[in-house]
Amino acid sequence: MTSALSFRNVSCRFDGADVVDDVSFDIEAGEVVCLLGPSGCGKTTSLRLAAGMDVPSEGEIFLNGKLVSTPKDVAPPEARGIGFLFQDFALFPHLSVYENVTFGLGHLSSDEQKTRALDLLNAVGLSGFANKYPNTLSGGEQQRAALARAMASKPKLVLMDEPFSNLDPQLRDQMRDLTLRLLRENGAAGLIVTHDAADALRMADRIAVQNKGRILQIDTPEAIYQNPFDLHVAAMFGPLNIMADAQSGGQIGVRPSDMALSGKAKDFSVEGEVHNVRAIGPDWLCDITLADGLAWQALIRGGARPQNGANKFFVPRARLMLFKTQ
Ligand code: ATP
After folding, report:
1. Which residues are bridge partners to 192 per DSSP?
2. Whose CA is nearest to atom 24 of ligand 1?
3. How far, in Å, from the CA of 158 to the mean position of ligand 1?
4. Domain end residue (candidates: 202, 232, 262)
């Protein structure tokens, strides 16, 4: 099967620094991949390379099997047949919602444009909004209009840059579900750039973790969360307690949410002094100081408020993460 998007050993250098460094991955037809990484790691540049907005210093990029970017030749964004969805919605302010959605549909008859636009506006819950202008819409409505526009030309690939980060948490959940539904219904693949692990865990078929320009690991959300390749990857998915492992000379990583105040004899256990407990909804976030002075945290699920003072914490062996020294 031809991949919707392929990067082959792609690098992009600015001012002598490899902002994107020897990146290779494929997004299969209809697949949603999230590119997850800390600020400045090269996510947006990777997306801009896929869009034809930046030129690779090395490597090749293919869209649906067609070579579209080399260091010498880059097909422009409008020739790529892809949809775009950005954080700041980027609707044309002087065009109505209807005109925004039909903007790229000049090759269709006006009847076809109308059918497509009204179907999409209906799908995103904006059927009464066709004649409104962007500045009269709420942030959530603007983002739904931008989603309808991104899908209008039936792209095989939609590129999204932090598409939900300007929305409040409830709207963000709705937009994630809606975006995924529209991608699936239209058989479109998606590349979503985000620094928010929740976006990636909820939406991605596969997550690619990027750091300092390189892709460190690409795998399903479940596999990457449970078996992170290194501490950088593990730390993208929330807080991590770390200690040296005398046996291997490497490091042990434990997620606060994997710790409990009771367990089995075969569990890994650690003793520490609880000195602060905060209620996080039904759970308890405990600040702990281990005997050797390390600062750890435990998120204890439900039950009574844990007591300050000496406590023993248990971690199922399967939840322990072992890393070589970085
Ligand atoms: P964020 O999540 O903060 O948006 P990012 O992972 O998307 O970060 P990029 O926007 O790809 O990161 O930028 C990576 C690095 O490349 C940054 O240090 C940035 O300043 C630099 N950079 C990006 N574009 C250019 C450019 N056109 N010229 C010079 N440097 C650039």
Report:
1. 34, 160
2. 45
3. 21
4. 232
Tokens 């964004």 sit on residue: 77
pLDDT (tens digit, 9 = 90+) per residue, 171-205? 888 889 999 999 999 999 999 999 999 989 999 99
pTM of the model: 0.90
Indicate which residue's Cα is closest to atom 27 of ligand 1: 14
114 lines ligand 1 (CB under 6 A): no
One domain for residues 92 and 160:
yes
State the Cα–Cα distance between residues 107 and 121, nearest whole angstrom: 20
Find the 43 Cα to ligand 1 centroid distance in Å: 8
Residue whose CA is at the smallest distance from ligand 1 atom 18 = 40
If asked whether residues 196 and 273 sit together in one domain, one would say: no
Structural domain for 310, as ranges: 245-323
DSSP 40-73: TSSHHHHHHHHHTSS--SEEEEEETTEEEE-SS-
pLDDT digits (tens, 9 = 90+) for 273-305: 999 999 999 999 999 999 889 999 999 999 999
Q: Are residues 58 and 192 in the same domain?
A: yes
**Could you tell which of 11, 19, 47, 215 is best to mutate to test the pocket of ligand 1, judged by most ligand atoms within 8 Å of the CB?**
19
Shared domain check, 18 and 111: yes
Closest by alpha carbon to 303, among 244, 260, 245, 266?
260
